[in-house]
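Thread: Histidine kinase, structure

OP (GT): Posting the sequence first so everyone is looking at the same thing. Length is 257 residues per the record. Can we get the structure tokens written out before standup tomorrow? I want them in the notebook alongside the other entries.
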Amino acid sequence: MTPLVVGQILSPEYSLGMVALSFLISFAGSLVALICAGRMVGADGKPNLAVVTCAAVALGGIGIWSMHFIGMLAYRLPVAISYNMPLTVVSLVAAILISGIALYMAGGRRKFSKPGWLAGSLLAGLGVCVMHYMGMFAMNMRASMNFDLATVGLSVLIAVTAAGAALWLAFNLRKFTHKVAAAAVMGVAVCTMHYVGMSAASMVCTAAAPVDALAIGGSYMGLTVFGTAGAVLIFIYWVVTGSSLDTPVAPRRARAG
């Protein structure tokens, strides 16, 4: 292996298996979120906050954040990488909260709202970008990051567009087969934003990694995140579809102009 030199630009590689897992978990999280979105409003016209929370966890915590973290683990450099745990946890909480607020703004108030959808799309898209770049700054390694602002701007545009599509699909699809197709599209969009965002950074070798006592890492971290996220999705699906047997879904209402 060629020794690294301080100031050298590092060439990244990707684990294709982890890239595939990142898409799979994004697809699964998006699909469960679409299922939850159809049950967010009860027959009495009031939002079911428990289902809203489940939708937020499925979309933000699994479909977006878990995809992001597994995608980060797919990113390989010729230096060791670990992740600052507090920043990583904050990015997870932020993804869930922002997704929940965006879902509620778009369709949690009795009917799908176009103004709420637009505001929620902007909020969710910018929130995804904040979460993504926060996760990148959580990387602890013998390298510094330089960003290409044009590529960063492209990633923001993709994130806002993907968020808008996700929220529209969440409240305007009824057939399960349509939701499966929509979840696949959402998975591709989320992954595209992530990997475009990663390509915005150039990694430059430095003398030593900063000391970080709260860093986490390991070769099995990706599989651990994937397994945990999968278990959470199964639980959410069981809770939401099980509760719907006792709580009827609200009838379809006219869309707001």
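GT: Both are above now. Quick notes for whoever picks this up: The two ends are 62 Å apart (CA to CA). Helices lie at 16-37, 49-74, 85-107, 114-137, 149-172, 176-199, 221-243.
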